[in-house]
Design a protein that fits this description.
The protein is of the alpha+beta class. Helix content is 48%, strand content 12%. The protein is elongated.
Length: 136
């Protein structure tokens, strides 16, 4: 007999059970307060320009989600750093911007390096160095 409970509800309930905080020393008290992460449906992403091709503006998130860095690190571990850059660029730039760069005949190596480095710096939380010191 098929279950009438939607699969999503079962999965969500199971995930909650797995993620439940564990008591400390059997006392029933927690040694931490669980965090709440905003649902993606409630999140509004602010974007800023990164580059232009002709008069067309291409943007990136003002704050790149930490999940993008996690994805990059997983891809780098599995396939190497060089191959991990493409999925990160697609995720941060978006498919349209990535394809625009890929198809651009006017894009120089220097421009491409700057874009890749900037996305990596922002996604991985690197800070620009000025005069040997990290910018604050």
């Amino acid at each position: 007999m098929a279950s009438t409970t939607p699969a999503r509800t079962r999965q969500t309930a199971a995930a909650r059970k797995r993620a439940a905080a564990r008591p400390v020393n059997g006392t029933g008290e927690l040694d931490f307060e669980p965090i709440r992460i905003e649902a993606d449906d409630d999140y509004v992403e602010e974007r800023v320009p990164l580059f232009y091709i002709g008069d067309t503006e291409y943007t990136i998130p003002k704050e790149i989600p930490p999940g993008a860095a996690l994805q990059f690190m997983r891809e780098a571990r599995e396939h190497g750093r060089e191959l991990a850059a493409a999925p990160l660029l697609i995720r941060v730039l978006g498919e349209d911007a990535y394809m625009a760069l890929e198809k651009s005949r006017a894009l120089t190596e220097e421009q491409m390096k700057w874009i890749v480095d900037k996305v990596l710096d922002l996604a991985l939380g690197r800070q620009e160095k000025r005069g040997g010191k990290a910018a604050r």
